[in-house]
Amino acid sequence: MNSYTDIYQKTMLPLHGKPLLEYLINGIVFAGIRELLIVVGHRKEQIIDYFKDGKNWDVNIEYIEQNELNGTGGALLLCENSLNKDHFFLTWGDTLVTYKVYRDVYEAYKNDGEDFILVSNYVKDPYRGAAIYCEGNYCLDIIEKPPKGTSNSNLNNTGIFILSNEIFEVLKAQKPSERGEIEVPVAVQIGIKERNWRFRVIQIGRTQFIGDFGNIDDYNKYKNEDNWLKLL
Fold this sequence. Notes:
This protein is α+β, with helices and mostly antiparallel strands. The protein is built from eight helices and twelve strands.
């Protein structure tokens, strides 16, 4: 995304009159969530100046700055002291899905009492994300960045979760990956394998929208087309 991120913070990439992050926040509001923590870093002022305190979107936004780029888990650890609930909703900032998926995740937590939930989507090969292995509606294993062609699963980690605060204990004890990062999917795997966490999996239907805006080809496609907007 370098040619674009020389100008824009990645989540502020323009899409038909709005930045990507505005669509994502609209989806979270649709789900019924009103208190947001946004971890910012590169070109943070673009996000803060645009959304401010969130009042125009009927949310309250707190910003937390990540100075060291040490992974999704590193970003999440910065939020620990600002989270005042036993559970929280987490999403990556460069993936957008049908708004109903955000609501389905939140309602599964509220109505079914699930402590841990993750969202998966179908791909030919999950080597760019994390492979999800399931039994029924629950995750048995998650493998971050599996080598291309090695996965026996077509389910990919979408990057949308409900998590218990227990995740912070695992993240603090986690060794950095080969990329020098603390990674949320690795903490999920440890929780499943070593702590018997039951991770409910909500699968995105193949007709539901999912956009990966960390991929320049996908971004160019959605920037030049608008038929996907009616799928949100």
